[in-house]
Amino acid sequence: MIKKRLYLGLLGVTLLMFSGALVYLWLTFFQRDAGILRYLLIAMVLAVLMVLFVIGLGFLGIVLSLLSSRNITVLDRPMNFTVSVLYPVVIWLGKIFKIAQDKIQCSFVEVNNQLVRAKKGKLTPDRLLVLLPHCLQERDCPNRITTNPDNCSRCGRCPVGDLLVLGEQYGVHVRIATGGTLAREVVKKLRPRAIVAVACERDLTSGILDCIPLPVLGVTNERPMGPCFNTQVNPEAVEKAIQFFIKGGDSHVIFTT
Ligand code: SF4
Q: What is the pLDDT of residue 42?
């Protein structure tokens, strides 16, 4: 929960900051008799109030979902809006408070994963995509697995082979992407209804934000040799994420896209 609190705390501070700015604007300018400016200000304040209301609902939905482990379906849209609109502000606030960006991203992925798990849906395997980063591939391997994963001979020198076998066992799509552009192309082509994504916190965060409202369960890779080089991943964590989507929990909620 500590990890999740960081992102939630920054999100809450952002909301307070915007509300404070609105009150300041109101108290400073609204009292003045400035003719047409007064009406412009009223329109502006009302517009900002509406946005803040939606963001507030989204924040409430996120907190309630996390506390109850249940999806608040009616608040899905405000939650997605709050997450995507406020993320850059949260990162900016983190810089002001001197909080490392990767810590915030790690917290964001944790919050996202719990929100996705709260949805408790069930998919047929062919609607699930497992996206792997290219850095999992052994650096000296000559096989071009990004164009076609079947080019992997499953030699066991890196985790890719085992993950492809896992994908076959469950009948889900497994693709390897070199970056965001290729990942977006794969998503556009396969049109999955949910994604299990393996990557570093930074790439997971941008991928999750890119895919909203598609549910994405993020599995963080391990980087024993530094970033983007012969990375590793716990296959059990990937398998659990696959099982969550295709075996489901309470099947009364179906994932929506
Ligand atoms: S498992 Fe596949 S991708 Fe990894 S080194 Fe062997 S052939 Fe290359």
A: 79
pLDDT at 251 over 90: no
Sheet of 173-177, strands arranged across: 173-177, 128-133, 194-199, 216-220
Of the listed ranges 25-39, 154-168, 172-186, 223-237, the one predicted with least confidence: 25-39
Probe residue for ligand 1, chosen from 132, 145, 166 as the CB with the greatest number of ligand atoms within 8 Å: 145
Q: Which ligand 1 atom is at minimum distance from the Cα of 154?
A: 1
Domains and CATH numbers, the chain: 2-117 (no CATH), 125-247 (3.40.50)
List, for residues 152-185, the tens digit of each pLDDT value: 999 999 999 999 999 999 999 999 999 889 999 9
Please report the atom of ligand 1 found closest to the CA of residue 145: 3
Q: What is the Cα–Cα distance from 173 to 179, expressed in whole angstroms?
A: 18
Q: Is 22 exposed, middle or buried (0-12, 13-18, 19+ CB in 10 A)?
A: middle
Q: Share the mean pLDDT of the chain.
A: 90
The residues lining ligand 1, judged by C-beta closer than 6 Å to any ligand atom, are 137-138, 141, 143, 145, 152-155, 157-158, 160-161
Separation of alpha carbons 161 and 182, rounded Å: 20
Q: Which residue out of 134, 136, 139, 143 has the highest number of ligand 1 atoms within 8 Å of its CB and is therefore the one to mutate? A: 143
Cα 55 from chain centre: 17
CA of 135 to the centre of ligand 1 (A): 11
Residues 195-209: tens digit of each pLDDT = 999 999 999 999 999
